[in-house]
Amino acid sequence: MFFTAKAIATECGILHPNQEVDEGAVIEGEEFRSLTDEERMERVEKIRVMARSSPFDKLLMVQCLRKKGHVVTVTGDGTNDAPALKEADIGLSMGIQGTEVAKESSDIVILDDNFASVATVLIWGRCVYNNVQKFIQFQLTANVAALMINFVASVLYGEEPLTSVQLLWVNLIMDTLGALALATEKPTEEVMKKKPVGRTTPLITNIMWRNIMAQATYQIAVLSTLLYKGESIFGVNESVNDTLFFNTFVLCQVFNEFNARNLEKKNVFEGIQKNKLFMAIIGLILVLQVVMVEFFKKFANTERLNWGQWGICIGFATVSWPIGWLVKCINVPERPIFSYIRLKYSNLDVHFYFFGP
Q1: CA distances (Å), 284 to each of 23, 90, 177, in order?
Q2: Are 174 and 320 in a shared domain?
Q3: What NCBIfam families does its record include (predicted)?
Q4: How many CB atoms lie within 10 A of CB 28?
Q5: Most buried among 9, 159, 182, 304, by the most CB within 10 A?
Q6: Do 131 and 185 meet the contact criterion of CB atoms below 8 Å apart?
Q7: Are 325 and 204 in the same domain?
Q8: Residue 195: CB atoms within 10 Å
Q9: At 52, which CATH number?
Q10: Torsion of CA 272, 275, 277, 280, to 10 degrees
Q11: What domain range includes position 246?
């Protein structure tokens, strides 16, 4: 039974053909049950296959993995699987062959008894999680840049560079059209090759912070230059310079949306031809932006721009692409950045004294 389980696991891809049994990857239920609590906790993460296991052995493994901080999923269809199904974070049972006890103890019931449905659920779940991260990165970049520019301008000069209507338009791009564009990304096989997200893994990763800070810093530098030196550099009046500022800010967000399509890959245009809805939304944003600048002068408080001024705005926005490519060459640690802050303060000895009257 031991060698049969190993052979089946190798055929399924759970074990590698050259992986030795003495590495602790394969174990029998009786051996696992006879281990002490300390030995069990030490070896549980190395186990890939447990042969001849009883319902109690499955329950023990689920409990050990959860104590280790893992998110545990258990599949089963028999009455004996009920304790492990209930103990797991997510219990999966079969809707046709599964017993009623197993179904009641499960969180998800596969109605067609096709285990391939689990893979479909996983790939779409990971895709949605990645799309949420992409939108958060996109929105935080715009928010950080807008907040810093407005704060500095308000404190130093007592005026806000963006009007209320312009801020509403920027929020429309970020919250509605931006979210819709990034949410249309379909799952790829690559998402299944990534490690599972842990229970305590932060939603905003170090990779996202790296991308956010690089793009936000560039936008703040460009927009600050336009705000305070644009009139003298480009030889325009104040109203045209304000329009250049607003137009550049919006176009930077549009071009940065391409960077947000992939958090790690340098080529942000890979597979973009397959996502026609994304390109349609980007095209819609650009058309609306042209209408806002060129035809809604009184409503948006803008001035018409000539071809050269449009080229300046587009040129500034285009620079976000090579910046995104360069910054992705920088490796970041996997450990969350804020964990260093918690560790620093946890090492401090704090003493409280009470002095009575």
Answers
A1: 57, 41, 9
A2: yes
A3: ATPase_P-type
A4: 17
A5: 182
A6: yes
A7: yes
A8: 7
A9: 3.40.50.1000
A10: 30
A11: 126-340
Tokens 């296959």 identify what position?
Answer: 49
Q: Are residues 43 and 134 in the same domain?
A: no
| CATH assignment of the domain containing 310 | 1.20.1110.10
Contact 246, 230 (CB under 8 A): no
Q: What is the pTM of this model?
A: 0.80
The structure tokens 């994304």 sit at 278
Q: Whole-angstrom Cα distance, residue 147 to residue 149?
A: 6
Structure tokens, 108: 């998800």
198 and 152, same domain (yes or no)? yes
Q: What angle do CA 212, 214, 219 make, to 5 degrees?
A: 90
Residue 179 and residue 35 share a domain:
no
Average pLDDT value for the chain? 84
> Structure tokens of 318?
């285009």
* Same domain? 111 vs 154: no
72 in Cβ contact with 65 (< 8 Å): yes
For residues 269 and 259, is the Cβ–Cβ distance under 8 A?
Answer: no
Same-domain check for residues 133 and 105: no
Domain total for the chain? 2
DSSP calls for 253-289: HHHHHHHTT-SS-S-TTTTGGG-HHHHHHHHHHHHHH
Return phi, psi of residue 74, to 5°: -125, 135
The CA distance from 32 to 322, in Å, is: 53
Query: Do 218 and 148 form a contact (C-beta atoms < 8 A)?
Result: no
Task: For residues 157 and 84, state if they share a domain.
Answer: no
Q: What pLDDT does 344 receive?
A: 53
The C-alpha atoms of residue 256 and residue 352 are separated, in whole angstroms, by 49
- Environment class of residue 48 by beta-carbon count within 10 Å: exposed (0-12), middle (13-18) or buried (19+)? middle
Q: What is the pLDDT of residues 88-124, one digit of tens each?
A: 988 888 888 888 888 888 888 888 878 788 888 888 8
